[in-house]
Design goal:
Blueprint (H helix, E strand, L loop, with lengths): L2 H35 L12 H10 L8 H37 L6 H20 L2 H12 L3 H25 L4 H8 L4 H35 L7 H10 L3 H30 L1
Helix pairs in contact: 3-4, 3-6, 3-8, 3-9, 3-10, 4-6, 5-6, 6-8, 7-8, 8-10, 9-10
Length: 274
Amino acid sequence: MTSETRRAIWRPSLVQRLEARGLLTILLVGAFAWSLSTVNWGGTLVHPGGGSIFLRFLQSLLTPDLSLSLLKLALIATWQTVAFSVAGITLAVFLGFPLGVIASGVLTSSRGGRWMSRLGVRFFLAFIRSIHELVWAWLFVAAIGLSPMAAILALAIPYSGILGRIYAELLNDVAQEPLQALRASGASEGKVFLYGRLPMALPDMLGYTFYRWECAIRSAAIMSFIGIPGLGFQIQVSFQDLLFNQVWTFLFFMVALIALVDLWSSKVRQSLTS
């Protein structure tokens, strides 16, 4: 291929990319302008007294409530939040992993079977993850009452959809050369999966699972706003009583919990990749 031919191919491709980016920019700017037009600029943007309350909230950051009774309550609420998140993410892994394997289509060599498994399971995964966990929580509270199981199921169902989708992508994105070597030695697709595909994808799968656990901790706290015990419930009660010093105490416990999970996940990923 001559240099003139390469330039002729490269230039239209570059122009197409620029045009696509320009169209996307126009759409984003248009969406932002439309959102601004929906705001009632003639009304009151801040509630009367809202500014002073917000200032009190910020000032309370420097003076959190560190009384022994509140710290004990925060520890109990933290443990409840962790318990809900661990139970929810564990159930999500047990549901999401087999669904992700099926959605990846890696266990079948038939093109038609792979296409059918991908289409059906991926649609199911998209459906269950498209409904927010708070909506699931309301549904389960209405079905089985205000119990920890409602929070656990509300976390597990959408998170299994998210994990299954990502697991499928990670299993499909592994390097193909080692897999071809296994197939050349006579290994079946099941053995290729167990000894090749899964070990290569496992570090990224675990790393993403830990990230989703961090999200599950925050979601478990949000679940508490519907009355389930945990950090979110304590934050809601303190907010209603305008006890911002207590709110910051519970928020600090939440931040510390997320930081510990992030540190632990980093150590686990390093041990798997070293």
